[in-house]
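chain and backbone:
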Amino acid sequence: MRWLAALLAMLFAGAAAAVTPDPSVPQRGAAAAVGALVWLHPSYGGDHPPEAPPWTTRLVAAGWDLWRLDRTGPGDPLDGGAQRLAAGSTALRAQGYRRVLLVGDSRGAFIALLALAVPGVADGVVLTAPAAHGRSETRRAQALEDFGSALAAAALPASARMALVLFADDAWDPNPAARASMFRAAVARMGIAGRLIDRPASPRGHDAASGALFDRLFGACLAAFIDPERFPPASCP
């Protein structure tokens, strides 16, 4: 089984390397930062992956260093991304970051959700419009089942915070009402603080979290909720 140990070592070495400092903002470093904020964007590969959504600048301003998990290409498997993320989180803690937050959008959110099965991977996570199965009607049942299975496997500590954002008119969402119910059950099972933003009147659509309107309406509340250094607000607008 020596080959298996070598393979795992290679996998996790690559995982740590996949979590890289986001070049869009200066890094404070582990000793000075509140913690590491890892952005999981929705795109495959490319030289210019999407920037973190505007609302995350509130966390950066509050003292968090912004990091990014890049994906390897169109064939990038979900489990592989989750393994790279878990190893990257371990590497960040080894550098001295006291806390790690995950913010994922679309497929990036689904990767973050899968990684929560690894104890200690995060102190807080925000999932916006998780998606990994496309828009076909024939895939909706599997999409919902995989979402529920990932939530059932999540193992966050009692001090963690978890937020889920679902949008109206999201063609990638197999069943928003069912996903909202699954999320509430998972939060209750883990005994953690949860925040659900469930199909607000505005903004709408799968990419809604990336816009300035979402930041204006929900950014301050969401940033305050997910930051374990701050007292969470009772509700979001």
Helices lie at 2-18, 57-61, 78-95, 107-115, 140-153, 176-190, 212-226. Residues 2-226 form a domain with the Rossmann fold fold (CATH 3.40.50.1820).
